[in-house]
Design goal:
The chain is mostly helical. It contains 8 helices and no strands. It is elongated, with a radius of gyration of 19 Å.
């Protein structure tokens, strides 16, 4: 069963990145040049780099998201199963949410270096070697200049945000799933 969850999550991430990456590129550039408007940043990217500019970092984002999903979803399912086993009944939605927070936080922590590489690639000057999208090169550059600390830059806010997101999303997912399964079985 974990293999199915991993495959489904990976496929979903590849498709979601088609929308997520352009918005992330625009957002990150807006964060580093606060004087520009979002539409102006979007237009400049298209004018200067074309559609490829909006998708700079697509590969690195997918290479971050797939390992994240491969860690988060099976861990979430395992934590729920463990909690259910310990209490002798299915985990409640709030318990699923706690498991989601733990799984998301752990997955966020271990994939932070990939997030750092993705961010470097997205923010690199057009035409630079960093803008080429080579994740290993970006990781090596960070390692050379900043060491382990650089590879895990931003780990605390990333873990906090993703833990909260995992709590909300996976808790709501579990509650909705339970409700829909109950409705399908003839229970309101």
């Amino acid at each position: 069963m974990p293999g199915k969850h991993m495959l489904a999550a990976s496929g979903g991430e590849v498709v979601a990145c088609l929308i997520r990456v352009p918005s992330e590129v625009v957002k990150q550039r807006a964060q580093v040049s606060a004087s520009s408007r979002t539409f102006q940043i979007f237009s400049n990217i298209l004018y200067e780099e074309g559609i490829r500019g909006l998708y700079r970092g697509y590969k690195s984002t997918v290479l971050r998201e797939i390992p994240f999903s491969l860690v988060q979803f099976p861990l979430w399912e395992s934590l729920k199963a463990l909690w259910s086993c310990r209490q002798g009944r299915a985990a409640e939605s709030w318990q699923s949410a706690v498991c989601g927070a733990l799984a998301g936080g752990f997955a966020a922590a271990v994939t932070t270096p990939l997030d750092v590489a993705k961010t470097r690639i997205m923010l690199a000057k057009a035409g630079s070697s960093s803008a080429s999208g080579n994740v290993l090169s970006a990781l090596h550059g960070v390692w050379r200049s900043q060491g382990l600390t650089g590879l895990f830059a931003g780990v605390v806010p990333r873990v906090a945000a993703i833990s909260l997101g995992g709590f909300i999303f996976l808790g709501a997912y579990d509650k909705t799933r339970s409700f829909l399964l109950g409705v399908g079985a003839g229970r309101p």
